[in-house]
Amino acid sequence: RSSAKLVAPLECLVSRQKHTLPDLPYDYAALEPHINAEIMQLHHSKHHAAYVNNLNIAEEKYKEALAKGDVTTQVSLQPALKFNGGGHINHTIFWTNLSPNGGGEPKGELMEAIKRDFGSFANFKEKLTAVSVGVQGSGWGWLGYNKEQGRLQIAACANQDPLQGTTGLIPLLGIDVWEHAYYLQYKNVRPDYLKAIWNVINWENVSSRYSTCKK
Protein backbone atom coordinates (compact mmCIF):
# COMPACT_ATOMS: atom_id res chain seq x y z
CA ARG A 1 0.00 0.00 0.00
CA SER A 2 2.73 2.46 0.97
CA SER A 3 4.52 1.95 -2.35
CA ALA A 4 1.28 2.54 -4.26
CA LYS A 5 0.79 5.85 -2.47
CA LEU A 6 4.25 6.97 -3.63
CA VAL A 7 3.60 6.40 -7.33
CA ALA A 8 1.52 9.52 -8.02
CA PRO A 9 3.84 11.96 -6.18
CA LEU A 10 6.88 10.48 -7.92
CA GLU A 11 5.21 10.80 -11.31
CA CYS A 12 4.42 14.44 -10.56
CA LEU A 13 8.04 15.06 -9.59
CA VAL A 14 9.37 13.54 -12.81
CA SER A 15 6.85 15.44 -14.93
CA ARG A 16 8.12 18.78 -13.56
CA GLN A 17 11.73 18.13 -14.57
CA LYS A 18 12.91 20.20 -17.51
CA HIS A 19 15.76 19.52 -19.87
CA THR A 20 18.61 21.98 -19.46
CA LEU A 21 21.51 23.10 -21.62
CA PRO A 22 24.68 21.37 -20.39
CA ASP A 23 27.78 23.46 -19.74
CA LEU A 24 30.70 22.94 -22.08
CA PRO A 25 33.70 21.25 -20.42
CA TYR A 26 35.97 23.91 -22.01
CA ASP A 27 35.86 27.55 -23.15
CA TYR A 28 34.33 28.54 -26.48
CA ALA A 29 37.79 29.41 -27.82
CA ALA A 30 39.45 26.23 -26.54
CA LEU A 31 39.17 24.31 -29.83
CA GLU A 32 40.81 27.00 -31.96
CA PRO A 33 42.21 27.07 -34.59
CA HIS A 34 40.27 23.98 -35.64
CA ILE A 35 36.82 25.26 -34.59
CA ASN A 36 36.65 28.95 -33.79
CA ALA A 37 35.05 30.57 -30.75
CA GLU A 38 32.25 32.27 -32.69
CA ILE A 39 31.04 28.94 -34.09
CA MET A 40 31.20 27.26 -30.69
CA GLN A 41 29.32 30.07 -28.96
CA LEU A 42 26.52 30.16 -31.53
CA HIS A 43 26.38 26.39 -31.80
CA HIS A 44 26.11 25.84 -28.05
CA SER A 45 24.27 28.91 -26.71
CA LYS A 46 21.87 29.37 -29.64
CA HIS A 47 21.36 26.13 -31.59
CA HIS A 48 21.62 23.59 -28.76
CA ALA A 49 19.70 25.92 -26.46
CA ALA A 50 16.90 26.11 -29.03
CA TYR A 51 16.62 22.30 -29.16
CA VAL A 52 16.37 22.18 -25.36
CA ASN A 53 13.75 24.91 -25.23
CA ASN A 54 11.64 23.42 -28.01
CA LEU A 55 11.92 19.93 -26.53
CA ASN A 56 10.54 21.20 -23.23
CA ILE A 57 7.65 22.92 -25.04
CA ALA A 58 6.85 19.80 -27.08
CA GLU A 59 6.95 17.57 -23.99
CA GLU A 60 4.61 19.90 -22.10
CA LYS A 61 2.15 19.85 -24.98
CA TYR A 62 2.45 16.08 -25.17
CA LYS A 63 1.66 15.69 -21.46
CA GLU A 64 -1.40 17.86 -21.89
CA ALA A 65 -2.55 15.80 -24.86
CA LEU A 66 -1.89 12.60 -22.92
CA ALA A 67 -3.99 13.82 -20.00
CA LYS A 68 -6.83 14.66 -22.38
CA GLY A 69 -6.56 11.39 -24.27
CA ASP A 70 -5.95 13.44 -27.43
CA VAL A 71 -4.19 10.87 -29.61
CA THR A 72 -4.24 13.08 -32.72
CA THR A 73 -2.17 15.76 -30.98
CA GLN A 74 0.15 13.13 -29.50
CA VAL A 75 0.87 11.82 -32.99
CA SER A 76 1.31 15.31 -34.45
CA LEU A 77 3.94 16.11 -31.80
CA GLN A 78 6.17 13.13 -32.67
CA PRO A 79 8.27 14.99 -35.30
CA ALA A 80 9.00 17.84 -32.86
CA LEU A 81 9.93 15.39 -30.11
CA LYS A 82 12.20 13.44 -32.46
CA PHE A 83 13.89 16.52 -33.95
CA ASN A 84 14.42 18.51 -30.77
CA GLY A 85 15.01 15.47 -28.56
CA GLY A 86 17.55 14.18 -31.06
CA GLY A 87 19.20 17.58 -31.26
CA HIS A 88 19.60 17.65 -27.49
CA ILE A 89 20.88 14.06 -27.28
CA ASN A 90 23.30 14.45 -30.21
CA HIS A 91 24.84 17.73 -29.08
CA THR A 92 25.20 16.57 -25.48
CA ILE A 93 27.37 13.72 -26.80
CA PHE A 94 29.16 15.93 -29.35
CA TRP A 95 30.54 18.44 -26.81
CA THR A 96 32.13 15.66 -24.77
CA ASN A 97 33.52 14.00 -27.92
CA LEU A 98 35.66 17.11 -28.43
CA SER A 99 38.60 18.37 -26.39
CA PRO A 100 41.36 20.99 -26.71
CA ASN A 101 43.70 18.12 -25.73
CA GLY A 102 42.24 15.78 -28.32
CA GLY A 103 43.47 14.45 -31.63
CA GLY A 104 45.91 11.70 -32.41
CA GLU A 105 44.71 8.11 -32.13
CA PRO A 106 42.85 6.12 -29.48
CA LYS A 107 44.62 3.57 -27.34
CA GLY A 108 43.91 0.26 -25.68
CA GLU A 109 40.67 -1.63 -26.11
CA LEU A 110 39.07 0.88 -28.49
CA MET A 111 42.06 0.89 -30.82
CA GLU A 112 42.07 -2.91 -30.91
CA ALA A 113 38.36 -2.91 -31.77
CA ILE A 114 38.90 -0.36 -34.55
CA LYS A 115 41.69 -2.49 -36.06
CA ARG A 116 39.52 -5.60 -35.77
CA ASP A 117 36.43 -4.06 -37.40
CA PHE A 118 38.01 -1.66 -39.92
CA GLY A 119 41.47 -3.09 -40.58
CA SER A 120 43.34 -0.03 -39.35
CA PHE A 121 42.79 3.37 -37.77
CA ALA A 122 43.52 5.01 -41.12
CA ASN A 123 40.77 2.96 -42.80
CA PHE A 124 38.32 3.81 -40.03
CA LYS A 125 39.13 7.52 -40.25
CA GLU A 126 38.74 7.48 -44.03
CA LYS A 127 35.38 5.67 -43.86
CA LEU A 128 33.85 7.86 -41.15
CA THR A 129 35.06 10.98 -42.99
CA ALA A 130 33.56 9.74 -46.27
CA VAL A 131 30.22 8.90 -44.65
CA SER A 132 30.12 12.32 -42.97
CA VAL A 133 31.04 14.18 -46.17
CA GLY A 134 28.35 12.22 -48.00
CA VAL A 135 25.45 13.23 -45.74
CA GLN A 136 22.97 15.01 -48.01
CA GLY A 137 21.85 18.30 -46.52
CA SER A 138 22.08 18.24 -42.73
CA GLY A 139 22.92 15.35 -40.44
CA TRP A 140 25.57 13.45 -38.53
CA GLY A 141 28.30 10.88 -39.09
CA TRP A 142 28.62 8.33 -36.26
CA LEU A 143 30.79 5.61 -34.85
CA GLY A 144 28.45 3.33 -32.94
CA TYR A 145 28.54 0.01 -31.14
CA ASN A 146 26.33 -2.84 -32.33
CA LYS A 147 25.65 -4.67 -29.07
CA GLU A 148 24.00 -7.68 -30.72
CA GLN A 149 26.95 -8.29 -33.02
CA GLY A 150 29.61 -7.06 -30.58
CA ARG A 151 31.27 -4.84 -33.15
CA LEU A 152 31.83 -1.21 -34.09
CA GLN A 153 29.80 0.24 -36.93
CA ILE A 154 29.76 3.49 -38.92
CA ALA A 155 26.44 5.12 -39.76
CA ALA A 156 24.97 8.40 -40.97
CA CYS A 157 21.79 9.96 -39.61
CA ALA A 158 19.75 12.67 -41.30
CA ASN A 159 18.81 15.93 -39.61
CA GLN A 160 18.83 15.39 -35.81
CA ASP A 161 17.77 11.74 -35.84
CA PRO A 162 19.38 10.18 -32.75
CA LEU A 163 21.63 7.22 -33.53
CA GLN A 164 20.40 4.76 -30.93
CA GLY A 165 16.72 5.67 -31.25
CA THR A 166 16.73 5.23 -35.03
CA THR A 167 19.35 2.51 -35.69
CA GLY A 168 19.82 0.72 -32.35
CA LEU A 169 23.56 1.48 -32.38
CA ILE A 170 25.01 2.89 -29.15
CA PRO A 171 26.67 6.25 -29.95
CA LEU A 172 30.40 6.52 -29.29
CA LEU A 173 31.54 9.37 -31.56
CA GLY A 174 29.35 11.82 -33.42
CA ILE A 175 30.42 14.36 -36.04
CA ASP A 176 27.94 17.18 -36.62
CA VAL A 177 27.82 18.09 -40.32
CA TRP A 178 25.04 20.64 -40.14
CA GLU A 179 26.33 23.84 -41.76
CA HIS A 180 25.93 25.74 -38.48
CA ALA A 181 28.75 23.54 -37.11
CA TYR A 182 31.30 24.88 -39.59
CA TYR A 183 30.03 27.44 -42.11
CA LEU A 184 31.35 30.61 -40.42
CA GLN A 185 34.88 29.22 -40.63
CA TYR A 186 34.92 26.74 -43.49
CA LYS A 187 32.10 28.16 -45.65
CA ASN A 188 30.58 25.36 -47.76
CA VAL A 189 33.75 23.22 -47.81
CA ARG A 190 32.67 20.42 -45.50
CA PRO A 191 35.76 18.25 -46.22
CA ASP A 192 38.04 20.95 -44.76
CA TYR A 193 35.99 21.01 -41.55
CA LEU A 194 36.10 17.22 -41.32
CA LYS A 195 39.85 17.21 -41.83
CA ALA A 196 40.23 19.73 -38.98
CA ILE A 197 37.88 18.11 -36.48
CA TRP A 198 40.09 15.02 -36.11
CA ASN A 199 42.57 17.29 -34.29
CA VAL A 200 40.13 17.80 -31.40
CA ILE A 201 38.50 14.37 -31.05
CA ASN A 202 38.47 13.36 -27.38
CA TRP A 203 39.53 9.72 -27.60
CA GLU A 204 39.42 9.31 -23.83
CA ASN A 205 35.70 10.11 -23.92
CA VAL A 206 35.07 7.81 -26.88
CA SER A 207 37.02 5.01 -25.19
CA SER A 208 35.08 5.51 -21.97
CA ARG A 209 31.78 5.26 -23.87
CA TYR A 210 33.00 2.06 -25.53
CA SER A 211 33.98 0.47 -22.21
CA THR A 212 30.64 1.41 -20.65
CA CYS A 213 28.46 0.04 -23.43
CA LYS A 214 30.30 -3.30 -23.43
CA LYS A 215 29.39 -4.00 -19.80
From TrEMBL:
Cofactors that this protein relies on: Mn(2+)
Residues covered by the Manganese/iron superoxide dismutase N-terminal domain: 18-99
SUPFAM superfamilies from the UniProt entry: Fe,Mn superoxide dismutase (SOD), C-terminal domain (SSF54719), Fe,Mn superoxide dismutase (SOD), N-terminal domain (SSF46609)
Residues of the Manganese/iron superoxide dismutase C-terminal domain: 106-209
Catalyzed chemical reaction(s): 2 superoxide + 2 H(+) = H2O2 + O2
Matches recorded under InterPro entries: Fe/Mn_Superoxide_Dismutase, Mn/Fe_SOD, Mn/Fe_SOD_BS, Mn/Fe_SOD_C, Mn/Fe_SOD_N, Mn/Fe_SOD_N_sf, SOD_C_sf
Sequence positions that bind Mn(2+): H43, H91, D176, H180
Gene Ontology cellular component list: mitochondrial matrix
Broad class of where this protein is predominantly found: mitochondrion
Transmembrane segments: none
Pfam families, per database record: Sod_Fe_C, Sod_Fe_N
EC number: 1.15.1.1
GO MF term list: manganese ion binding; superoxide dismutase activity
Subunit-level organization: Homotetramer.
Function statement: Destroys radicals which are normally produced within the cells and which are toxic to biological systems.
Family, per entry: Belongs to the iron/manganese superoxide dismutase family.
Protein name per the record: Superoxide dismutase
Source lineage: Eukaryota, Metazoa, Chordata, Craniata, Vertebrata
Name of the encoding gene: Sod2
